[in-house]
Amino acid sequence: MNYYLTEEQQMIKELAAKIADEKIKPVALKYDEEGTFPHDIVKILADSDLFGVYIGEEYGGFGGGIFEMALVVEELSRACGGISLAFAASGLGAFPIILYGTEEHKQKYLPDIASGAKLAAFGLTEANAGSDAAGIQTTAVLDGDEYVLNGTKQWITNGGEAEIYTVIACTNRAKGARGFSAFIVEKGTPGFSFGKKENKMGIRASVTSELVFEDCRIPKENLLSREGMGFIVAMKTLDRTRPGVAAQALGIAQGAFDEALKYSGERVQFNKPISSFQAIQHMLADMAIQIEAARCLVYQTCRLVDSGEKSISKESAMSKVFASDTAMKVTIDAVQVMGGYGYMKEYPVEKMMRDAKITQIYEGTNQIQRNVIALELIKGLKTKK
Length: 385
Prior knowledge:
By secondary structure, the chain is an alpha+beta fold. It is built from eleven helices and ten strands. The strands form three sheets. A four-stranded mixed beta sheet has the order 1-4-5-8. Strands 2-3-7-6 form a four-stranded antiparallel beta sheet, covered by helices on one side.
């Protein structure tokens, strides 16, 4: 379908696709097997100026928004959902600064993120605070001109590789979620270290690790917005970045479909390519329908976010749920179309199926997203009354 991309958006999409096809595809299986971080690909992305597509021109970026970010994520994920996360997770870490940082914060941190010189990461999740984000235990206590952080963040994408972290911590336990605050913490700060690096089912080229704070002192100027705004910072950030997860899922689905379609024309059974059999044709047709429907929803949601619309929680959640469920369904069907070969690690769809699963889980499980959607629908019903 023609989504009427601007000339600049089309150039971004084509550049990301070129890197995906020429640089990422040949090494995707290698990085998956080794479970190592793709430093060489990150450098290529940085040299191509793609890290700045969603950052303002005044901070060294392209001046685009979530839509431009999603176009890059989709194309990179078509080749490898894990490698694409080095880019996508840096965006997640950057958006609290974009949305709530002071001019000093933006001038200090965004140019390095835009150039790819430094990666960012977002620290919200903890062992007892996953879907229930209000359960975080990490604390930040003001001591003179510094905040002292203590606690551990779990399952943080880009953990240990990023240089700039936006972290949610509790500054007033008595206020519950209204007692949370957001901070910028730099790698190398005394008292800030990295714990366990996770051994994952999928997205193995992405580093997922613990952030450990032990009497970690940061300047009080590193507070984002003001005390008590941390939960809002986190939720508003996720509302804007969930279409990025949807774009990752969309790219994985497209990559798996491409492989299955190609294989169906090459695989001969009963003296015919299997693409000539109606059972396979119907599977391919359904996969194509689901992917295009997901793309429509993701792109429109991105445009809604970039328009400045304030109420985007429902649409953001919808795009994430639909695209990630589509990725899981399409990758499973792609393995089925390819049969025994699809199950083998030497073919990419086995990896794509493993990579797809996480898109239904992180940045809010799809069950939680359905709760969000339903509550927004009910709220709208009450408003109409």
